[in-house]
Target: MATE family efflux transporter
Amino acid sequence: MTQAPTSARSTPRHHDREIIALALPAFGALVAEPLFVMVDSAVVGHLGTAQLAGLGVAAALLTTAVNIFVFLAYATTAAVARRVGAGDLPGAIRQGMDGIWLALLLGAAVIAVALPTAPALVELFGASDTASPYAITYLRISTLGIPAMLVVLAATGVLRGLQDTRTPLYVAIGGFGANAALNATLVYAAGLGIAGSAWGTVIAQNAMAAAYLAVVIRGARRHGTSLRPDAAGIRACAHAGAPLLIRTLSLRAVMLIATAVAARLGDTDIAAHQIVLTLWSLLAFALDAIAIAGQAIIGRYLGAGDEEGARAACRRMVHWGIASGVVLGLLVVASRPLFIPLFTTDSAVRDALLPALLVTALIQPVSGVVFVLDGVLMGAGDGPYLAWAMIVTLAVFAPVALLVPSLGGGLTALWCSMALMMSVRMATLWLRTRSGRWIVTGAVRR
Model:
């Protein structure tokens, strides 16, 4: 791969163009993903309350099962980007194929576990007697689509590593449209009910996986790369992804603890907490798009042996993270009179919601830095440090959050503990980037 001179590639304007070119399509693809569940909810909601409740339980289980394997996208992005930076496109494609084969193996394992245990899992999540049959039906059918979902994650990582975030956007839009059409057709026209919604999602996810595989296979053939599974390569992908799995599980533990604490505060606070958490997730899409750009860009610079380019890109992305966080925080404050009525008309919920929203707005610049540095270190393949940093963060957050109810704190105190969590994450990530130990050049991180 031909590289421009370092001086030409280290200017702020050049980095801005790279970040925008990768982050904007990535943002669109990220926003499209949760729309799958929204479409299912909208269609199934007209079948009845029990069906919608069953969907809610099954969707939560399904989302958890898939999201814990998000490392398939992150680790693959970093590994492929390094190969691209080193000018080894055949090796980049081979690296991506290893990630896809790992996704298929993990998907098969999840099916083997989830199908027989679906009733127990639904019961564990507290589904009612009327909702349970619908939850079990949806979960069992949708589980068949998990291998395709994991292939989508891995293949998305391949394309991001190849500096292509537009194709994932197009595939996500196509998948969303297909899912909506299939749901309407199978649920109502075919009369399959909630099972039709599940089958629609399975078919749409498999179509997305097929589209990704067509792109990757075409690239493999162009560069003469084997499509056969390679045991050593698959093991290497699993080894690289394991620390990121620990990081993801620790992060999800934070969210579960926060929700559990909010539930102990009472119905008003848990309702307000759910609204703040929904907004938090929406804001995260914008910041995560910059992190995705960071994974791809940093991996490519390090693969090319360009330490200064990687440092310059990191600095520029931090500026982007701070600026984005400030803008998002101001938007939260300015738009609160508009979006709060969309969620609730209960004055008690509004009173609990407002100060927690202000805390969320204030920590957005911190969140911007956290997301960016998280992406930088992922792009560098610094997974073990990210795992330890998140474990430390969880160890600090958990006792503080769990003390909130016993100390008489409310939702605002809980979200102050979330602000503490983000501050600890920023401190651990900032120390790592300042140390320079994340900078390891070469086509493969040793």
